[in-house]
Design a protein that fits this description.
5 helices; alpha/beta; globular; single chain; 9-stranded mixed sheet
Length: 201
């Protein structure tokens, strides 16, 4: 059973449908107090960092997620949900994140490529990861984002993707914390396998 946090940041129902297709049971809830009943939590997200972290804090999910991680349980952040896990973001001003992964969310700058990145791009592994079991290296996933995660510690990065003149962090794995910048629910078989791996890990 996977708990999907509903904090008003969109795309949670498409993720829920993907899990249902895989035969994985889920519960979608805006009640942060229920999170403690589950071993796996998914943090979806589409939208702006500042608004999202404000909603996350007001709803009680920030403290609940930190406690969940402290207990050694698993969390998966998707897109904006990944970015919320970092220390801070520069999106439309300075905003403090959950700080469970040291790092900053930065805007793609000094690039001739069109921002946001919208579409398919390859993901190259830095090391073995539970999240990518059974998925060939350099598989393609679907991205929609203008900002990217820049973790402090390279050991937290499990995959990178090239865009905007740089290899940016496209996946994180750290002590039960999993996160991907792409949308697995929109990434065909490879994306479904990511969700399946999270449900099983």
């Amino acid at each position: 059973m996977v708990f999907i946090a509903d904090y008003g940041a969109g795309n949670l129902h498409s993720v829920q449908k993907a899990f249902e297709y895989l035969g994985v049971k889920t519960v979608v809830s805006a009640d942060a107090s229920r999170l403690s009943e589950y071993s796996k939590v998914l943090v979806p997200g589409v939208g702006a960092f500042g608004h999202a972290i404000g909603s996350f804090n007001r709803s009680g999910f920030s403290d609940a997620i930190r406690e969940h991680i402290d207990k050694g349980r698993h969390v998966l952040g998707i897109c904006l949900g990944m970015q919320l896990l970092l220390t801070e973001s520069e999106e439309m001003g300075a905003h403090r994140g959950l700080d469970v992964v040291a790092g900053k969310v930065r805007l793609f700058r000094d690039t001739d490529e069109k921002v946001p990145q919208i579409g398919w791009n390859s993901v190259e592994y830095c090391r073995d990861s539970e999240l990518f079991r059974g998925i060939p290296d350099k598989s393609f996933f679907y991205f929609v984002h203008s900002y990217y995660c820049d973790p402090v510690h390279s050991a937290d990065v499990v995959a990178t993707t090239f865009f905007g003149g740089k290899n940016f962090c496209s996946a994180i794995e750290k002590n039960g914390i999993f996160a991907v910048q792409f949308h697995p629910e929109k990434s065909s078989e490879a994306g479904l396998q990511v969700l399946k791996n999270f449900a099983k890990c």
